Structure formats: structure tokens, C-alpha cells
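Researcher: I'm preparing a figure for a lab meeting and need a structural model of a single chain. I don't have an experimental structure, so a prediction will have to do for now. The sequence is pasted below. Please return the structure as C-alpha cells so I can convert it later.
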Amino acid sequence: MKTIIKIGLSLCISLFFISCEDDSFAVPTASVTVNQQEFAINETMVIHFTGIAQQVSIYTGDDMHNYDLRAESNTGFVVNKGLFTYSYRASGQYKVVCVASTYSDNAAETRQDTCSFVVTVTDDVTEIDKLSCSQVVYDEVFADKYPNDEWLMVLPRKVKYSTSSLAISLSAQRLKFYIQSDSTEILVDGNPYASNTRYNLTNPVDIQVTSNYGTVRPYKLYTIYYPEFETFTLAGVAGTVVRTEFDYSYFEVELTLPQGTDATNLSPEFTLFSTADQVYIGDTEQQSGSSVVDFTQAVSYRIVSTSPDNPAMQAESTVNIKLTYQ
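Model: Understood. Here is the structure written out cell by cell.
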């Protein structure tokens, strides 16, 4: 009886190890689900691995990840926890290949299974994400996006630079477009866009964007200056405009009045660069030479500039008055 038990126990142990070895070197099954098979560029493809494997890799089929060219150093992406996401930057049809692998003890032998499907990627990008003047002395000034594919660029008339101020001209500015496709074509006033061209932004600019797919989308760019006082005189004393290099919409006007000047009831005289500009203290419009102001209190002007080509396009500046006395 004891001998029979030993033989039976020995047989059970042998079967146990065979079973473990088979489990550790299972036959792989390549099986996946994908959220869709037609994508726009930069749209996310989501793949879930549903098969059997110890290691899973995905060949996306684009440059350097083509399964058919794996002998030429093309590689796949290792899938982590059964989930893989990817987006394509160029249009085309791509063969996506999933490789499921299992390994024997010490990786002496490998078993693999594959499955594949084809995705179609369309480049139909016409969206301008950002638009800027690429260089205003040392700064990149971005336009604001408005409804109906309109943009407003607001530039300073002058920029504080070291100890002087440099004038900024609307008639010679480089433009920079941020678009999520290298294949999108841009026309500026009917001519192909070039990053080194200086464009005349004095009048509204027509921009046409054409996707690789062929969709055409028109935009309009308006450009105005931040409004400011051209001159500001108080009690016969001319003020000096002080700029900051950090905020183009903020100014200070410095004035030194004679000692003893009564500043409680003064009517400043001022001129503006555009007759369309309006001056306010709070919400009360101010008129040169007639609006009475108490300058013993802190005085802050608000100047609003409106594009002559589109009343919805406005820029606003703040001007604080700084008084000293001789």
C-alpha cells in the first residue's frame, strides 16, 4: 500500500509540473478592439488588447513603425496594461498590427500571434489655434480670437526699449500661424504665406486656410494700436507719458505742477491719436478742456479704441495720472 501511494504521489507531482510549464508558455492570441477606423490627424486612436499574451506590441504603420519593415529597424510600441493610444500627424492609410507574444522558461522559445486592421487618417485641419506678430522688439504679441473666424491684433505704438522707445509700424509686421498640420496651406491677401514677409496690417487682412483634404476656410484679421494720449496738459503743464515693457495697455502720465496749484477743480486738455478713441473715468466720458476732475484723488483714465472697419473690434488702455509739485 505504501508503494502505491508513493507512485501515485510521484505521478501527481509530475503532472503538476507539466501543467505549470504549459501555463507559463501558453499559446498567444492576438485580439484587439479599436474605437474607430477613420480618424482626423491628431485624433486619438484607442486600442484595447483582449487576447492572451505575456507581452503585446503595436505597430502603427507610419514612419519607423511599419510591421512589414521590422527587419529594417522599424519598431512597435509596447502595450501597457492592455491599453494603447496613438494619434497620427499625417494623412493616409495605415496598417496597424498587434503582436501577441508568450515565452518559455528563461525565454528560450517564443510564440507569437498577430492580427491587423487598416485605419484611414484624413488631414482636414483648417483651425488656426493661435496667430501672432512674431516679433515686436523682444516680444511675441498674440491676436485675440473672435466669433465668425475674426481675429484682433492689438499692438503698441511704441515699445520701451532700454532707455528709449521704439516705434512699431502696422505696415511692416511678420505674422506667425499656429496650426496643427504641416500640410495646411495659407494665403494672406491672396498670396502664399511666408514667415519672413512683412505684411501691411493697416487695413483688414484676408486669410484663407486650405486643408490637405481640400476644405477652404476664410478668416479676417483686424489690427489696431493700444490707445493712448498724444498730449495731456494740466494747469498749463504738459505731461510726460511713461511706458512699461511688461504691459502695453498701461501708461502713466507724470506732471509737476507749481507749488500751491489748486488741483481740486481742473479741466485737463488732451489730444488722441484717433478721433474714434474715447476717454472715460469709470463709465463717464471725458471731454478735453471741459470735463472737471479732482486731481487730489487718484485719477485713472480708461481709453477705448475702436477699429474703423469693425465696431466689434476694440482695445482698451489704462492711464494713471501721477502728480508732483515744485
